[in-house]
Every structure is written in C-alpha cells, then in structure tokens.
Write a structure and sequence with these properties.
The chain has no helices and 13 strands. The chain has strands at about 5, 10-15, 20-25, 35-40, 45-50, 55-60, 70-75, 80-85, 90-100, 105, 110, 115-120, 120-125. Strands 2, 4, 5, 6, 9, 12 and 13 form a 7-stranded mixed β-sheet that branches. Strand 5 and strand 6 form a beta hairpin.
Length: about 130
C-alpha cells in the first residue's frame, strides 16, 4: 500500500521555523519526485517545492525562495521541508505528493498535473 505521511506542522509565530517531514512507503522512493503543495482556506492549491531524486535537483516557488528548503534522506524514504522566516501568508495545509518527475506550468510554477500519490496533509499556522 502506497503511503505518504506528513508531520511537523503546528502553530508558530511570525519569523519562526518549522520542519515538515514526509515519510513514503509502498513505492520505490528513488524513482519519484516528491513535491510539497499547500492550500490555504479559500485559495487555490500552490506548489511550494519539488525534489527530483533522479536528477538530484530541487525547485522552490518564488514565494518561498530564500526562506524554505527541501531535502531528502533516501535511507529513511523521507523528504523534508525546512521553513524559516515564516509569515502569516504561509498558513495552510501542507501536502506532500509523489510523481515521476517535477512538473511546471507555462509560467514556470510547480504544478500537480503528474501527481500519483498524495498525503493527507499537515496544518501550519503562522500567527502575526
């Protein structure tokens, strides 16, 4: 059974940090790209990051560039999203997702068109 399990969300003050984890099982971790997406209430889902294990490349949305990083521990089948300098606008449910490769729309934004598997999400709340 394929599973993606996120953890690490919570309540943090503006300027604080959180590290989200996504533990994958049930598929060959190294063959997939792992993306982080977020959705705030009343807003569309947004691609935050994508880590492509096959080419050892990471991508970040412009909105989080310089504040967030993504990394993986292949021995643990885990991808992390380190979030620093958090802002209230980062408040959302964060989902990790697996796909064969990272996908981008015509504007270069990370998109979810190729997602095979989704986690259930973890809530991040940034207070002002």
């Amino acid at each position: 059974e394929v599973q993606l399990v996120e953890s690490g969300g919570g309540l943090v003050q503006t300027g604080g940090s959180l590290r989200l984890s996504c533990v994958a099982s049930g598929f060959t971790f190294g063959d997939y790209a792992i993306g982080w997406f977020r959705q705030a209430p009343g807003k569309e889902r947004e691609g935050v990051s994508c880590l492509d294990n096959s080419v050892r490349t990471t991508y970040l949305a412009d909105s989080v560039e310089g504040r967030f990083t993504t990394s993986s521990d292949n021995a643990k089948n885990t991808v992390y999203l380190q979030m620093n300098s958090l802002k209230p606008e980062d408040t959302a449910v964060y989902y990790c997702a697996a796909e064969p490769r990272c996908n981008f729309d015509s504007e270069g934004k990370i998109e979810s068109i190729g997602i095979n598997y989704w986690g259930k999400g973890t809530l991040v709340t940034v207070s002002s």
